[in-house]
Amino acid sequence: MSSQTYFPRVSVTRAVVTGGAGFVGSRLCEALVDSGAEVVCVDNLLTGAIENLGALRGRGALRFVRSDIAEDGFTSPAVRAALRPGVDLVMHLASPASPVDYLEHPLETLDVGSRGTRAALDLAQEHGARLVLASTSEVYGDPQVHPQREEYWGNVSSVGPRSVYDESKRFAEALVSGYRRTLGTDTGIVRIFNTYGPRMREHDGRVVPTFIRQALAGEPLTVAGDGSQTRSLCYVDDMVAGLLAFARSGHPGPMNLGNPHELTVRRIAEDVIDATGSRSRIDHIERPVDDPGMRCPDITLARTELGWEPGVTWPDGLSRTVGWFRRRGQEAA
Ligand code: NAD
Ligand code: UDP
């Protein structure tokens, strides 16, 4: 089996989404159900929340099972029962994703990337299903090539604080590639670049929800360093459309998914202040260790192979996200 062999396109009737109660996973569960699929969401709620699946409550097409896939694999009686009718797609998103989260849960992050990924691969193999690994732009580390193409091997510290996430995802990619080559499993790897939107936790530590929370509270926005480092931010609906297109395509990846519109962190802070109409000032805090200096996806492969590209502009996505945070704040008051 060549690692580049395409499998046939997948028509999805029953999908498992690991990490389906998280920010991206919950939107993915909704999109799968909207497309007519039945979905089994397996999540231990480490960084996710059952409320994220609220829009699917009462729709019989979703089953939620609370389970730690690194500890229990897919062996608990509740999971086995939910999986009995079969599975044709496993979307493997379970993992802390925010730097604050993975630094708080370093061993859980390593476990879910290693043991959790192996369990998800075994599940796919058992059912003859396609497995899609939600990998990350962090596999490129602090990149020395810009923008990042899939061929770039990256610049990653194996012992720095971020390594628990970066190396866990790199190991997961290696595991997926090993199953594909050795067992012929239908696998795909997507490398997700910074994604933002409604349902991010206001305290998850990532830049967009942090700045919006601070701006709405009239607190200073905490820009790390001089704010000249860059990120390229993709609105969550675009990301979910890309994930679905990739899942159905049979493409092996790795494939970058993200929005190539690159912004400095300082510009992100200024735009959040404008979008919220806040009077907050900008404060500078220490840059985290190994914080990548620049990040921007080359999405030529996704454009060519999937016909996918992001459609939601940063001002539009930011305004939708600010609106969601405002409504949430009013509901909580
Ligand atoms: P998130 O933290 O909101 O969601 C992750 C979900 O995984 C949570 O619901 C969490 O409870 C669950 N989980 C964690 N460990 C688990 C375990 N052992 N068993 C079962 N469930 C477990 O994060 P997100 O932003 O939605 O990210 C989803 C995926 O996409 C992650 O794999 C992440 O690495 C990847 N990704 C996201 C981004 C981004 O910008 N959002 C960027 C790159 C990669
Ligand atoms: N960042 C910041 N202030 C914050 C949170 C993050 O300046 O309060 C910076 C962070 O140092 C990084 C960028 O924003 O340079 C993106 O950080 P995030 O945690 O969102 O994602 P990642 O580092 O994983 O890309």
From TrEMBL:
<dbReference type="InterPro" id="IPR001509">
    <property type="entry name" value="Epimerase_deHydtase"/>
</dbReference>
<dbReference type="InterPro" id="IPR044516">
    <property type="entry name" value="UXS-like"/>
</dbReference>
<dbReference type="Pfam" id="PF01370">
    <property type="entry name" value="Epimerase"/>
</dbReference>
<keyword id="KW-0456">Lyase</keyword>
<dbReference type="InterPro" id="IPR036291">
    <property type="entry name" value="NAD(P)-bd_dom_sf"/>
</dbReference>
<feature type="domain" description="NAD-dependent epimerase/dehydratase">
    <location>
        <begin position="16"/>
        <end position="258"/>
    </location>
</feature>
<protein>
    <submittedName>
        <fullName>NAD-dependent epimerase/dehydratase family protein</fullName>
    </submittedName>
</protein>
<keyword id="KW-0520">NAD</keyword>
<keyword id="KW-0210">Decarboxylase</keyword>
